[in-house]
Amino acid sequence: ELILSLRSKLQTLGEERELVLSETRECAERGKELEAMVRDVCKPNEFERYMMFIGDLEKVVSLLLCLSSRLARVQNAMKRIDEKTDAEEKQSLNERHELLSRQREDAKELKENLDRRARVVFGILAKYLTDQQLQGYRHFVQVKTSLLIEQKDLEEQIKFLEEQLENLEKSIP
Hints:
Elements: H1 2-41, H2 44-79, H3 87-128, H4 131-171
């Protein structure tokens, strides 16, 4: 029953992932339309700032999500430490935890910098776009970020369930 339940949940998550991927493709199309519009109305250096911001948005959000996920896994492993855990493994986990914590703090600084750049890009676009077009731009940035987060979350859930299913199947003779 547990195996069937895990497989059913995996199938549901797979379907959700397909939906998110479809929304991601739609968002990418909207991004291309927005890019063409910005290219048409902005000066070349302003367009370059826009493009750098949009490219860095995905990179920074993905980096933060990845580091947070890895840090959570290390923290979970640290919670399972007991008197049977050897000193080398404890030290390794502590070192990884410290490293990932520092990296996540650095990534948060990158995100703060990105937020400042977002305000600059918005200021540039506000000179050229209508209120409706600006709302479309804001919506695009929010949706792009949300989809990245949702996609990463689904991938993590799927990976976790696949590992559970694999371990469960191995444990049954």
